[in-house]
Amino acid sequence: MVLKLSTLFLRTLREDPVDAEVASHKLLVRAGYIRRAAPGIYTWLPLGLRVLGKVEAIIREEMNAIGAQEVHFPALLPREPYETTGRWTEYGEGLFRLQDRKGADYLLAPTHEEMFTLLVKDLYSSYKDLPAYLYQIQNKYRDEARPRAGLLRGREFIMKDSYSFNIDDEGLEEAYQAHRAAYLKIFARLGLEILPVFATAGAMGGSKSEEFLHPTPVGEDTFVRSAGGYAANVEAVTTIVPEAIDYTDAPAFEVKDTPDTPTIETLVECANEVAPRTGNPWTAADTLKNVVLAAKMPTGERRLVAIGLPGDRNVDLKRVEANISSHLETGGEVELEAATEDDLKKHPTLIKGYIGPALGTDDAVLGLEGSSKILYLVDPRVVAGTSWVTGANAPGQHVFGLVAERDFTTDGTIECVEVHAGDPAPDGSGPLETARGIEMGHIFQLGRKYAEALDLKVLDQNGKLKIVTMGSYGVGVTRAVAALAESNHDENGLVWPRNVAPADVHLVVTGKQVELFEAAQKIADELDAAGVEVIYDDRPKVSAGVKFSDAELIGVPTIVVIGRGLADGVVEVKDRATGTRTDIAVDEVVAELIALAKA
Ligand code: ATP
Ligand code: MG
Q1: Which of 25, 112, 468, 557 sits 20 to 30 Å CA-CA off 486?
Q2: Which residues lie near ion ligand 2 (Cβ < 5 Å)?
Q3: What pTM was computed for the model?
Q4: Whose CA is nearest to atom 13 of ligand 1?
């Protein structure tokens, strides 16, 4: 059906919405694709739904092609299954929880592992039933701390989520690879540049995991890559651990007065005055900085964690968050923030600016000690035998030559520092460079975590009950619409790739004569009959200028102008992306446009 602008439910806007920061958000609202309903929650208008439908259709085709079958779960779910896996609590503030009239707990699903697991448990009982790949395209709800950039990070959003069920690990690997290949095809067909990067599994648990990042400066994910082909989310980068150093001959540590040195900068300056080293002045890299963080546990408890790292580096909170769950034994996601004055007051032995490991004396209650009440984790570069300048747990004092392992212990290592450009790739493939991207998809080998928790077992070849192994695979569908808009626009508006555009052709009539409208209507009908999707700007009282700017804003790939040229038997065909204009004979234009649309 031809979409006529005289009746289409659409109002384009000249002004950017005040809450919009990124181009995709501004343009999708201005061009009439979406409207904000509440923070991070959007209404889809007719044009938007057409793009969304095309994105979904591509995803469906590729999922069906790997033998996945579509189902559809409710978004409103009971608490119990999520209680069983621990996620009712572990999901923290991100989960929308609610109650029915009887006071029973429900949630709006942030993702559906539990329900898929239970469904398969309900219906399947034998290895012969497997493998099974199931998926849905459905609303998800997450009370994001920072809903942002329109559809890019919503609180309600659409995800394609699929789940694989296999009897053994080889099967899981096959399912994972099938999804990986399908994802590469999906993003290629969408016209979205994608880089698969290694990731940490976060709250999902499980082992192997990759994210599909779309490189763009507006992305919230920092990733790194090397010339040799390594690519990873910074959370997942691992440090090449230096070899331990023999400390048999290392001199004993010394506590020195270093007045007014609460920062690394002041400390380095002071160290070079009170303990000058000839030819090798102290630098920030010689210092061990101890940063105290507060972990907001899923239980509501606030636990302090101290992180020790070389003083020339900063803590990357996201990396700590991604890697800390095993140390805190929460099993789930933990939010971290810098410890407050109040937090520190509860531990009077921590002297801000002078915090260091316990010095191995009899009264080792001062400072950070491995296995003490405050978990003390260090950067992997702090290996046995490395010698540090660090806080002496007394105001205005630091300790020099404190040797790891000999003089202090820790509760383990953690990937915690900001990854810098130039750091070596963990696989030896060269120095890393950093870039930003949007996470478009994420695939996980979950393994047996959910099947175990929910008791999904089937009979194996020997008639024994065996726990099923699972994978879970997500694509951000509404986020894909935003990413496409973000990467396909210019100063005048959206520039959709043909595969996802709301229509193929946008017809504009300029002028008042009835013949112009008749000619346009005829072209529109012929295109429509040939299966070419048409937007027809048939508004009689709207100026040519407004029609042109609306056409540019809406961003359909081919714009056809039916105006003055018609008297000479030609119409103008304009390519939205390149701006190229060509006059084409009016009796050839339909064939030409069909060829363009079907190319
Ligand atoms: P992010 O790190 O961006 O918060 P996530 O890792 O929490 O995402 P997953 O649980 O892996 O997300 O969900 C699968 C996919 O769903 C993501 O790759 C992303 O494309 C999409 N997605 C996740 N959260 C949102 C959101 N708030 N708004 C829109 N899409 C989202
Ligand atoms: Mg993810």
Answers
A1: 112
A2: 442
A3: 0.81
A4: 474
